[in-house]
Each structure stands twice: as structure tokens, then as C-alpha cells.
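job 3f2a | input accepted
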Amino acid sequence: MTIRKIMALSLIIMMMVAAASCEKQMLVVADCSECYADEPGSAVIKIKIREIPEYHTGITINVYEGSDTNSPLIYSFIVYNGEQTADVALNRTYTVEAVYRIDSRIYRAIDSVRPTLKYAKYDCDEPCWYIYNNIANVRLKYF
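job 3f2a | predicted structure (143 res):
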């Protein structure tokens, strides 16, 4: 093997080790309109539902603290339209379930979120705190 091949192979191995040893980081851009000057102690989950006014008698929203619907239930409420919200703690995983009752059939949409806090020093005009990964999409696609 030539020196050039050995160096190239060593560089590839070092890059693979470095990539495997780092935590999973997502590129998140701050929404400056939703920034907080002071560090928030809790978060709001935004729950997106599908509005089907002619077919349903209300959508049951269940919010569980954990990664599935067998986790402890912390909220349960019925909604009829619009984006809904639920107040939760930061840095915990929540599962949101929407139960649609349409023409005597039950449809479920499930999503999981983990509201996380990040400090944006340079993203906005002023340094601020913002929350990401707090939107649960439980819109029914087909029925």
C-alpha cells in the first residue's frame, strides 16, 4: 500500500469513529417570533388535527407522558376544530393520540414529541431561548 492510500484510509476511519461517537444533533433554526428573553420552565405542545365538521362528533385528544399509549395519561379532552395546545415539562417524551369517530368507525393518529429548549445567541436580533420539537401532527390523512 502506498502512503497516500494509508492516509486516505486512516482519514476515513477517523471520520467514521468521530461520527459514531457524537450525539445526534439536529440543525434547528430558531423562530425568532417565538423566542423568550428568559429561560422558560415548561413548554407548550402544539397539536395539529384534521377538521372534518360534517363527519365527526368531536376528536378525543389523549396526551401520554412517555413514548407510547401505554404510558401514563396526563391529558384527555375533546376538540372540534383548530390547533390545540397542552402544557408540559421540557425534555420529556410525550405521545399524542387523536381518536376520530367517523361514520361509526374509529380512526387513530399518533405522534410523539420531545419539547427541547435551546439558546439562540446569534440566530435572532437579541439572544433568546426557543423550544423546538413541540409540534404533534395527528391529522388524519385517510378515512
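job 3f2a | The chain is about 15% helix and 45% strand.
job 3f2a | closed
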